[in-house]
Amino acid sequence: MYSPNQLEDYSHQILGIDLENLGICTAVLNSGIILTEETYIKGMTLGDANFGDARTEELYLLKIDKTQCSRLQRIRLQYVSFVPVEYTNAILNELLSMHKALSIKKPRYFENSMEHRIKMRIAKAISTIIYKSNINFWNEDLLNLPLNYNNQLNINYVYELLVAKCAPDGDVILNKLIKITLEKHLWK
Asked: What is the pTM of this model?
């Protein structure tokens, strides 16, 4: 039998090697062991984009299995669901930073591209954490995300909902819109 410290060390080693194992992931997260912030973030954005035959096979397996989501989606949801309260703000800020960095690195991208999928995973993780933890989270970067005209529409919709939910009051949004309007008129 392992002591709690040994189990914690072992879980970090296992998840470092096999982050995609649903059984191990579920067992570790259910054990109450608090992982590092990086591990939670890595788990939330886990997975590659499948194209061609691999995508067809994945869709076929989903249809046969009668599940609503793939194994990797379930793993991502597990990581999002078990974020400790003390990590919530740090993880949300890091996810916003990741989105911002990805937008700078690759401003334009196509629907269902790897960038689109990563941005969607980040948006889903942020929205799920905020709704599940029921915290009052506000960051000025959150207000700028729906204004990025290079984002795909479904990503902007998620961020618009988050701004509506998280804004301290309507004046914050109104002041931002007034500021944008004034800047637009100054450029003319």
From this structure: 0.80
